[in-house]
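Listing S7. Sequence submitted for prediction.
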Amino acid sequence: MVLGETSAFVLLTLAATMLASVCVISNASISCAQRMARGFYILCVVLSLATLIYIILGDNGVVRESDRFFLWLRPLLFRGWIVIGVGISSAFLILLNFVASLKGVAGRPAVRAFISAPAVLSGLCFSVSLSFLCTEVGKLVHLADMRQFFALSGYAAWFLYFIMVAETLGAFGLLMSRTMIPAAIGLMAIMVGAIRTHARNGDPFSDSLEALHLLVLLACILVVRLLRTRVALAQPCDGALGTSC
């Protein structure tokens, strides 16, 4: 039996989340957790830049936009489901550690070292930021098609340009600490609007998967950004584990 796009997306997301959770929880070394966090950031950068370059090559005709092109584009857009798996896992684990800290219970230092690592949050933000920039590149190349889609969806032409500007500003806002939270909230609102528009138009749910993917990641960014400091400060001093007071 061949899975549909939506079913495949859900199953791959769950599998990636479980795998990421196992990797984080099973690790017992703080130094290893920090290396994992840095490795995740590097992977986010590499996959995101590869996606942007691939889209630009396709839009400029260097790579022919055939069925094979889109076959490879889908896993690139979803970053092989690695980023969303780590994002959901980190957000879930950071929520658990936050609740535990409220009860005065200290979680495992190695787990907290990973989920509160700046590299994890930076990797999530970089991936989502590049995703929106890739989207803007696609909209500019297919501007006539986008104008038609917005018109058929009942929106004025100026609204397309407003969304493009808002998404671009939000993409850059995710990369700066002071604007990360409002940028994430604003982009989440746009993604909810995109999903609602597809539903109202009667489009298949698979057309909303990219927006859903970004919506979930933006929610993870908010959770990690708001709670990571609290979880990091809750880490006890333990010389044997390599932490310091």
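Caption to Listing S7: primary sequence and predicted structure tokens for the chain studied. The longest helix spans residues 30-59. Residues 237-245 have pLDDT under 50 and may be disordered.
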